[in-house]
Amino acid sequence: MIKQTWPAERTKKFKQAAFVYLYVAILYESTVYVMFDANILPVRLGPPIIWLIGGGLIALSVFLGLYFLNNVWISRSIWTLQAFRFPGLIAGAFFPQPDTLTPTNFYIAALAAVSINFWTLARASWDL
Predict the structure, then answer these.
(1) What is residue 41's DSSP assignment?
(2) For the chain, what is the domain count?
(3) Scanning 11, 29, 48, 52, which has its CA 20 to 30 A from the CA of 58?
């Protein structure tokens, strides 16, 4: 019951959502790596390299799940989790704190990428 079969048009939506998700995941992983290299990541939650590896494995799993399984519950779950990214991105883009190291343009670009990802996941999830 994990793999679902859909008409070709809907299967394309899952594949598109998978690649857009992979793109956003690569952007996030790259950002974490650059911040790690610049020594500006907090270490309060453990070594950043563990989080980089874990994030990469999760991203690869989601990509494979969307691409090969075409399961609406995977895409809906990721869509729901993506919704929780918006408040932080909006705050960083439009209401930055005075002591913020990250420029607002970074948050605006991330907001655009996450919005596109949100849209492709919704298309696959609800056949829009």
Answers:
(1) S
(2) 1
(3) 11
For residue 2, being part of any structural domain is answered with no
pLDDT for the residue 1: 59
1 is a domain residue: no
Can you list the pairs that 80-86 forms with residues at least 24 positions away whose Cβ atoms lie under 8 Å? Answer: 82/114, 82/117, 82/118, 82/121, 83/118, 85/114, 86/111, 86/114
d(CA 1, CA 48): 36
Find where tokens 């691409």 sit.
67
Structural domain harbouring 106: 8-126
From the first residue on, what is the mean pLDDT of each consecutive set of 10 residues in the chain (128 residues)? 85 96 94 86 81 93 94 94 93 89 89 95 92
Q: 0.85 cut: is pTM over it?
A: yes
The reply to whether 3 falls in a domain is no
